[in-house]
Amino acid sequence: MAEEQESTVTSQESLIEKIADKIKGHDSSSSSDSDSDSEKTAASSIKEKVFRLFGRERPVHSVLGGGKPADVLLWRNKKISGGVLGGATAVWVFFELLEYNLLTLVCHILILLLAGLFLWSNAQTFIYKKEPHIPHVHIPEEPFLQVASALRIEINAGFSALRNIGAGKDLKKFLIVIAGLWVLSIIGSWCNFLTLFYITFVLLHTVPVVYDKYEDKIDPLAEKGFIEFKKQYAVFDEKVLSKIPKGPLKAKKLA
């Protein structure tokens, strides 16, 4: 009897120890889960606080509009992007370096096309005794209407932005636009419109892809520059802008 009581006591003690071990293991796993959850939330909060250039919250591909135009600008298809950039370079070389005029270039291209088509059609008739099939070229109307509609929307938005800036509601934006136009006028005095357009085209095909590749290194530098700009603007606002007398418009509104 004594041995049976001792065995039952030891079995009860081992059962209690197992239950305690399970409780401890559950507590440790729950604490580790809570620690991992807290680490994840901290990491996500850190990611949310990362400075992005121009305050963007979407990837560069989405900012550029997505689709095929963004693929071309980001060199997702190197053949198409290289072909577009090569074509723009050829146009710039023809008009800027070789000093071709637009009318002269169009006429020379048409002369070559018509001469080749004329020779080919006569050779086809002479050899095969039948007239060649020349396809009809037809330009659809819908793409031109879409482009015109998109241009109309953008031009109207530009006019609205200029109106808001000229109304004197935002002095900071007004000064930024005036400074940008002044810099653009200086650049325009250095080169003609075609060269400026080509430089802009090349920048559109190089800057986004470089930023998309090295954004983790560029964003911290941009953050430092933005902080320094805000400091300098605060000093300029305190010493200059704050001393400019306000117009009578606000006084009339208050009255």
Give your account of this protein's structure:
It is a single chain. This protein has 255 residues and is mainly alpha-helical. 79% of the residues lie in helices and 0% in strands. The protein has eleven helices and no strands. The protein is extended, with a radius of gyration of 35 Å.
Overall mean pLDDT: 76
Oligomerization status of the protein chains: single chain
Note the gap between the termini.
105 Å
- What is the rounded Rg? 35 Å
What portion of the residues fall into strands of 2 or more residues? under 5%
Weakly predicted, low-confidence segments:
1-7, 26-37, 39-48, 249-255
Number of strands: 0
Describe the main β-sheet briefly.
Answer: none
Helices, by number, come to: 11
Apparent shape = extended
Short description:
79% of the residues lie in helices and 0% in strands. With 255 residues, the chain is mostly helical.
